């Protein structure tokens, strides 16, 4: 990285980057917030540190380091890791020992919420929960349908997606479908057109009191920056880590959700895809298969006989009840 990029004062309260390579300046320069001084933890670099998510290119051991900019044979995929945050009046307002945290409703900016009633669990007692993004946190398919209709004159509704394989629904080749999706990533349809699933924000705020929440998504590495920005906009401060599986990518290695969840020590995965649900259940991970208001056809036609560790849920209230039953008497 150029000396200017490393020495300028980055104003950010949400992001921290740790990598085995020099970081891209774009991720830093897009950040905004309160400056937090300190040493940036980078191999061979120094600068200002900011708390929040960190982008970490993980390897299994020092021997598996990067070679010519690519992952080693045993390398793990990119992970966004939330750093321990300095507490200040912007993040937490302590009132008689009770914290007032952000809450938000659909299509609204995050705002201060009322004190929560859940007992505050210590970090080691919290249930480790992995959460998918598309169709669980945000309405990806609805936004994608608008793009496809406007750019390819191909009109579809969510009710047509009997499988979560776009080329089958669009009647095109798999390669053509991948190209369309990656074109979608470059547009406002993707960047600003995906809205939170109703109930997700308020429920996750409550769950954060007794759950260690991390995002595990099959999304591609190519859209990690926009994904991170979207998470911080709609779900500020709720997730400790973000892991990208890099599935259906035009390049790069991919990781299975079962592998990622096991590395996290996740006890539960919340996901809408039956294939991922079965894969994780076979690895001993409990899954809440999310079929919002019974409106996801791919959840019905692929389910069949679900493993005992997979439970269907239809909204975020049901998610809350199931997770609370795991930890509360």
From TrEMBL:
<dbReference type="InterPro" id="IPR036412">
    <property type="entry name" value="HAD-like_sf"/>
</dbReference>
<dbReference type="GO" id="GO:0009264">
    <property type="term" value="P:deoxyribonucleotide catabolic process"/>
</dbReference>
<dbReference type="Pfam" id="PF06941">
    <property type="entry name" value="NT5C"/>
</dbReference>
<dbReference type="GO" id="GO:0008253">
    <property type="term" value="F:5'-nucleotidase activity"/>
</dbReference>
<dbReference type="InterPro" id="IPR052419">
    <property type="entry name" value="5_3-deoxyribonucleotidase-like"/>
</dbReference>
<dbReference type="InterPro" id="IPR023214">
    <property type="entry name" value="HAD_sf"/>
</dbReference>
<protein>
    <submittedName>
        <fullName>Uncharacterized protein LOC103492406 isoform X1</fullName>
    </submittedName>
</protein>
<feature type="active site" description="Proton donor">
    <location>
        <position position="134"/>
    </location>
</feature>
<dbReference type="InterPro" id="IPR010708">
    <property type="entry name" value="5'(3')-deoxyribonucleotidase"/>
</dbReference>
<feature type="active site" description="Nucleophile">
    <location>
        <position position="132"/>
    </location>
</feature>
């Amino acid at each position: 990285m150029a000396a200017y990029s490393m020495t300028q004062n980055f104003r950010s309260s949400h992001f921290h980057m740790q990598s085995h390579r020099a970081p891209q300046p774009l991720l830093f320069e897009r950040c905004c917030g309160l400056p937090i001084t300190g040493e940036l933890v980078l191999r061979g670099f120094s600068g200002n540190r900011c708390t929040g998510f960190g982008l970490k290119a993980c390897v299994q051991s020092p021997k598996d380091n990067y070679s010519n900019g690519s992952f080693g044979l045993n390398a793990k995929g990119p992970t966004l890791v939330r750093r321990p945050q300095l507490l200040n009046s912007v993040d937490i307002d302590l009132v008689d020992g009770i914290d007032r945290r952000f809450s938000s409703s659909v299509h609204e900016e995050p705002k201060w919420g009322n004190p929560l009633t859940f007992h505050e669990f210590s970090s080691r007692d919290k249930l480790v929960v992995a959460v998918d993004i598309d169709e669980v946190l945000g309405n990806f398919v609805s936004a994608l349908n608008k793009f496809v209709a406007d750019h390819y004159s191909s009109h579809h509704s969510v009710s047509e997606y009997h499988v979560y394989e776009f080329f089958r629904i669009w009647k095109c080749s798999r390669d053509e479908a991948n190209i369309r999706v990656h074109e979608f990533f470059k547009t406002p349809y993707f960047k600003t057109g995906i809205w939170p699933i109703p109930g997700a924000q308020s429920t996750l705020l409550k769950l954060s009191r007794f759950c260690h929440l991390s995002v595990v998504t099959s999304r591609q590495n190519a859209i990690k920056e926009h994904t991170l920005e979207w998470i911080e906009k709609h779900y500020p401060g709720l997730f400790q880590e973000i892991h990208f599986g890099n599935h259906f990518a035009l390049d790069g290695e991919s990781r299975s959700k079962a592998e990622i969840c096991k590395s996290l020590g996740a006890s539960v995965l919340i996901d809408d895809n039956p294939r991922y649900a079965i894969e994780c259940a076979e690895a001993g991970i409990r899954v809440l298969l999310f079929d919002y208001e019974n409106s996801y056809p791919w959840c019905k036609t692929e389910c069949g006989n679900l493993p005992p560790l997979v439970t269907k849920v239809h909204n975020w209230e049901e998610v809350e009840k199931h997770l609370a039953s795991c930890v509360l008497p």
